Amino acid sequence: MKRSRTSIDAIFNQIENKEIGSFTVNSLGGNVHAAMDLADWIKENNISLIVEGNCFSSCANYFIPGASSVLIKSRSIAGLHGGALQKIWRRNYPWYLYVFPLMIIIDQ
User: Fold this and answer.
1) pLDDT tens across 87-107, in order?
2) Which InterPro entries match (predicted)?
3) Which of 24, 36, 65, 103 qualifies as a FRET site for 42, CA 20 to 30 Å off?
């Protein structure tokens, strides 16, 4: 399920004033700006990321670099690709033809 700005706000409301050390994700990606906001929170709060299932697109591009550590569980996968600031995103042709995902699989 793709995460929207509304669902990210709901996450912030749930975690407000709580001590959290790790964050478990299973995401196909979603809204770039919402993911960046959550990634900032992950970075600022020194959060460890646990991938259980999938972490694609915005999840992998922003959450993984922001995390203090990353555990990709057995039979889980993370897929990264180019970012929203690339020139290709601003052109009028299909950007997805030029995105080559890097797949990371760690079996523990």
Assistant:
1) 655 555 444 444 434 444 444
2) ClpP/crotonase-like_dom_sf (IPR029045)
3) 103
Q: 24: phi > 0 → left, psi -120 to 50 → alpha, else beta; which?
A: beta
**For residues 98 and 41, what is the distance between their CA atoms, to the nearest angstrom?**
30
Number of CB atoms found within 10 A of residue 47's CB: 21
Strand ranges in the chain using DSSP code E only, listed in sequence order: 22-27, 48-56, 69-72, 77-80, 102-105
Give the tokens for residue 8. Answer: 């990210």
Instruction: For tokens 């990371």, name the residue.
Output: 104
What confidence score (pLDDT) does residue 84 get? Answer: 61
Say how many CA atoms lie within 13 Å of 98 toward its Cβ: 13
* Count of C-beta atoms within a 10 Å radius of residue 78: 24
Burial class (CB in 10 A: 0-12, 13-18, 19+), 17: exposed
Give, in order, the Cα–Cα distances in Å from 48 to each of 28, 41, 83, 97. Answer: 19, 12, 22, 33
Q: Considering the entire predicted model, what is its pTM?
A: 0.69
